[in-house]
Amino acid sequence: MVYPDTFEGFAVFDPSPETWSSVKKYEFTPKPFEEEDIDIKIETCSICGSDAHSARNGWGKPNAQYPMVVGHEIVGKVVRVGPKVTGFKVGDRVGVGAQSQACLECKICKSNNEIYCPKLVHTFGSIYHNKDGSTTFSHGGYSNYCRIHQYFVFHIPEIFTNEEAAPFLCAGVTTFSPLIRNIPTNLPEGVKPKVGIVGIGGLGMMGIQFSKALGAETYVFSRSSKKKEDAFKLGADHFIATGEQENWIEDISYELDLILCTANSNENFDLNTYLKALKIGGKWVSVGLPESPFTVSPRSFMANACFMGASHLGSHVEMIQMFKLAAEKGIKPWVETIPMSEAGVKEGLEKCHYNKCRYRVALTDADKAFD
Ligand code: NDP
């Protein structure tokens, strides 16, 4: 198969408030092809909240570089494999998430925690340090092709369509990883763990399903009751509309073992109150990455000796475990599709940022978007 030396994507050129979603086609040179790399012809890429944050430079990264092609829930077909690639061949349907490189040699990588490797490279908006000494800026999945090290490429179970598979690659594994690492396993026989999920968006919808599949009694916190019916369809046992129920915390104080927070903003966000829902020694894990810091009083931790932490994506091993569990239990994301184009990317990014999609937008037909 013949394909180009340079790749093409829909890039954000200017992250300012008026232009962040107005992408334009952009040609870029991928990193040099190395012996464990795989080139993938992209078919579908779904839109994560992090794409919108990055397109807006919402986290205020001083060295953020534009043009930037975002997108890191990628599904496509293998078109080229390096000489040291094992387990993948041309034609395989595969997926790529938000991480595309790590050293794979340090003690962090060797303990299956490569998501915390100091040398990690994100699929877009990061810098590859290539073996030939050069550096390359990474561009993401709103593109025709991507080039990724085999460790960060995954086979897709046949039961999932492209658009169903894509959100697993970031939203899915980002919720699966902290759940399996933090749901308590030492409860007395017959006692179910109780898990809260804050926010029903792309991550939240996956978190609810995984929490349930992992055997937890699942509490869903949403700001209004608009998504209540959906929360129960996704598997919630309890639903709390924090913006509508005054004193909502009273019924669930000291109840939960774990709360996973997927909120992407801090507007009217009262962390001190949420923490009261935790049992003694319970855990709050943030995966949502709002653009402004949390405010929390040290006294809130004293009240129930709770812990607060965060989690980043999920490891190679967890990605494989997640797809296996999802295929066995029939877990699927709820996805709206939009064909990939300048207008389609703009529509999808804005739907995500303004909380208007139910619950993930997948950009499809990438092959038709590029010559
Ligand atoms: P979505 O926009 O799809 O969903 C975010 C949800 O957060 C909303 O639907 C809303 O749910 C809830 N929310 C928003 N603002 C508030 C608020 N002020 N208080 C309470 N809840 C709120 O985004 P994604 O699910 O794609 O991403 C969520 C976040 O996770 C983003 O910040 C993203 O960058 C981050 N992320 C982190 C990763 C990691 O490795 N840690 C990986 C991937 C993403 P509702 O309407 O139900 O209240």
From TrEMBL:
Signal peptide: none
Cofactor(s) recorded in Swiss-Prot or TrEMBL: Zn(2+)
All residue ranges annotated as the Alcohol dehydrogenase-like N-terminal domain in the record: 35-158
Keywords associated with the record: Metal-binding, Oxidoreductase, Zinc
Keyword Acetylation attached: no
Family: Belongs to the zinc-containing alcohol dehydrogenase family.
Protein name in UniProt: Unnamed protein product
Organism of this sequence: Ambrosiozyma monospora
